[in-house]
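To: structure subgroup
Subject: Chain for Friday's discussion

All,

I'm putting the inputs and outputs inline so they're searchable in the archive.
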Amino acid sequence: WYKSTNWLTANPVSTWYGIKVVNNRVDSIGLGSNNLIGSLPASIGDLHLLRILNLSSNQLKKSIPSTLGNLEALTFLNFYNNGFTGSIPESIGNCSNLEYLSFEINHLSGPIPESLGNCTKLESINMYANQLTSIPASIGNLHELWYLNIVSNGLSGSIPASIGNCRKLQNLILYFNNLTGSLPPTLGKCTELKELALFVNQLSGEVPRTLGNCKKLERLYLNQNQFTGPVPVTLGNCTKDRKSTRLN
């Protein structure tokens, strides 16, 4: 560790580097960029009142323990830039108070669990650069979600039509995957959308006219797919501060 002040000593836990204690219970762990090596122990699930867990930019490996689901008070979870492998545990759905979730730049594989839809307070999800394979339909339960980034994974199948239930969504970033099927017309319900980046997939069919309902759209990247038909004239409605449009 770069910093390990008072760890594994008789000093109060509240004095350990990176630990915040509230009412004699561990409230926050902040050990980002601290050269941690090894795995995340299952005992992390014993910290039932933990709200913030930041282990970003370390060298943690192996799988994420299912006991993570015991952290029902967790609001902030950041595992950015580690070496975690295996699947995202189904128990993540028990963390129903989560607002921020980052698993980006790891080696996680398999489908994103349906149980993630239980985390209805989620506002931001970043899973960039893993090997995840599908987006669950339950994503539509995340009515507070404004940022979703699952770039450079192995996503296949279609974009769930339920994404249209995420009415606060501003950034939908899914490029460099293997998504197929048509673009769901329900995206037109995401009227706060500012960025839609889906390039380098295998999406097909016509670009839905309903995208014209997203009048705040600034960045639209649909190139390197298999779309057919005309460019919808309704895209002319997206005139607010539009910066760039790419449509192949």
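Points worth raising on Friday:
The first strand starts at residue 19 and ends at 22.
The mean pLDDT is 96.

D.
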